[in-house]
Amino acid sequence: MHEKCGVFGVYCPGADVSRLTFFALFALQHRGQESAGIATADGRHLQLYGDMGLVSQVFDENALSQLTGHIAIGHNRYSTTGSSRKVNVQPLLVGSGNNILALAHNGNIVNSQLLFRELCEAGYIFHTTTDSEIIAHLILSAPATSWEDRLRYAMHRLQGAFSLTILTRDSLYAVRDPWGVRPLCLGKLNGGYVVASESCALDHIGATLIRDVEPGEILKIDANGVESYKEPVTRRALCIFEYIYFARPDSIIDGKLVYPTRLAMGANLAKEYPVDADITMGIPDTATAAGLGYAQQSGIRYTEGLMKNRYVGRTFINPDQRIRDLGVKLKFNPMKQIIDGKRLAVVDDSIVRGTTTPKVVNLLRKSGAKEIHMRICTPPIKYPCFFGVDMATRGELIAAHNSVEEIRQFIGADSLGYLSMEGLYDAIGLPKDNFCTACFSGDYPMPVQLEMDKLALENDKVPTADGW
Questions:
Q1: End residue of a domain, out of 222, 237, 252
Q2: First-to-last C-alpha distance (Å) of the chain
Q3: To the nearest whole number, what is the mean pLDDT of the chain?
Q4: Residue 161 and residue 299 in one domain
Q5: Strand partners of residue 193
Q6: Percentage of residues in the chain with pLDDT exceeding 70?
Q7: Which residues contact 358 (CB under 8 A, 6 or more apart)?
Q8: Taking 90 as the threshold, does the pLDDT of residue 104 lie above it?
Q9: Which of 133, 355, 392, 404 yields a CA-CA distance of 20 to 30 A from 126?
Q10: Are residues 174 and 290 in the same domain?
Q11: Exposed, middle or buried, 97 (CB in 10 Å: 0-12/13-18/19+)?
Q12: Do 221 and 274 lie in a common domain?
């Protein structure tokens, strides 16, 4: 399972907003590593710079010095609609004159093809293959004059997940969809304000967390401070995987620090699926806390048995075939002297396609593990996500067509236990109806097209300026 995008925005007169945005994006790097971009405004003009790569690869002192102004937005991308290429780098700059905006988007729009065709027929020209540009053009096409009313219009037309930071010539806007699928928070900094996908970005730049942006809320931030506009909400549906996997453990979402919830997931796994083992280990990095929780609850000592190469996949140099054949060894290196002859309780955050877990189990077997007992921090994933997680189609999900026992045999473990929904809710400690759990249940918070393609807009035959 892959990360989603990270978005950030800052309104802070007198501050070096491009530099603040750079360090905030650095803190949000885990949410997307394909591309990074920053847009700034000074009250009259908008500037934009972005490219493929990590934040530290895209920006240098010269690039940041060109991004002047007192307002900025930034974006780290992991592609969920539209392929990974330079034309799709965000923020997007759309419009002209007084009718111009820059937009950064985290999420996925499920009615994007319908809106795309409608906007094409109305004469709008597309330069990217992302649903984010559809949002931008939808805002510009709104039958309204104020930006607030335009955003309201777009919110009513859009179906899906969208946490947005939007830049006009003199204002910063933050928008969260009525379901609140993707996180977004508001903070204060030196007489100004910031918004970010996660609170860890605020910590890194010395900002103070105020609160989460509410589902269905539009924030306008300008010289007058913060104004809030709220649309009716019928169902909350925060992606539960923010707590399981996506968010950094030092982030606070809905008032909950993520790290203790992961400890509790591991502890509940130990209660539901105890085992006689010699050591407990978590698959790094996202299951490390859950592994510790399992160890604390079970009394089975915790140790690191796998070391992770955290830079795998973060280079533009393709491995040759010999290195590619190493597969999971390129990512994890087992410590044989710790594992050899031991019975292992191995905690992981999830099993999606079932392609990586058998390789990890095999790696541990070859390192001498006597027994391997897999413990998973989620219920079985049986349905795909359409709201900003590049997960898999239903046909690719191993739990959609196999029992737990069949999955255990396939991955080669001695036992396999999935955390129950009750155990998961208990670990997070928030009401059940706060979350989207469609990947477990198939109960989507809104109607979806059951087999959507992330390249659907590229495969659409409607012509654009780029001819795609």
A1: 237
A2: 28
A3: 91
A4: no
A5: 11, 188
A6: 90
A7: 410, 411, 412
A8: yes
A9: 392
A10: no
A11: exposed
A12: no
Q: Which of 5, 12, 377, 436 is catalytic?
A: 5
Residues 140 and 227 in one domain: yes
Number of domains in the chain: 2
- Say yes or no: 202 and 265 in one domain: no
Q: What CATH number is associated with residue 197? A: 3.60.20.10
* DSSP helix/strand/coil, 450: coil
Question: What are 144's two structure tokens?
Answer: 């309204």
Name the nearest CA neighbour of 57 among 39, 37, 79, 43: 37
Residue identified by tokens 């654009």 is 464
pLDDT digits (tens, 9 = 90+) for 125-164: 999 999 999 999 999 999 999 999 999 999 999 999 999 9
- Domain range holding 311? 261-429
Q: Are residues 208 and 270 in the same domain?
A: no
| Cβ atoms of residues 85 and 35 within 8 Å | no
pTM: 0.91
CATH number of the domain residue 323 falls in: 3.40.50.2020
Reported as type and span, the H/E element at residue 165 is strand 160-167
List the beta bridge partners of residue 262: none
**CB-based contact 286:247 (threshold 8 Å):** no
- 267 in the same domain as 231: no
The structure tokens 């809905």 sit at: 254
pLDDT digits (tens, 9 = 90+) for 212-259: 999 999 999 999 999 999 999 989 999 999 999 999 999 999 999 999
Q: How far apart are CA 238 and CA 245, in angstroms?
A: 13
Q: Is residue 81 a contact partner of residue 108, using CB atoms and an 8 Å limit?
A: yes
Q: Is 5 a catalytic residue?
A: yes
Asked if the structure places residue 121 within a domain, the reply is yes
Domain assignment of residue 242, yes or no: no
Residue holding tokens 């946490």? Answer: 163
In a domain, 365, yes or no: yes
Block residue for tokens 């060109």: 66
Number of H helices, E strands in the chain: 18, 23
The beta-carbon contacts of 356-364 under 8 Å, at least 24 apart in sequence, are 356/328, 357/411, 358/410, 358/411, 358/412, 359/327, 359/328, 360/283, 360/306, 360/328, 360/332, 361/411, 361/412, 361/413, 362/412, 363/306, 363/328, 363/329, 363/332, 363/334, 364/305, 364/306, 364/334, 364/339
Residues 6+ positions from 284 with CB-CB distance below 8 Å:
304, 306, 307, 308, 332
Residue 456 lies in a domain: no
Per-residue pLDDT at 330: 78
Angle formed by the axes of helices 357-366 and 404-411, nearest 10°: 50
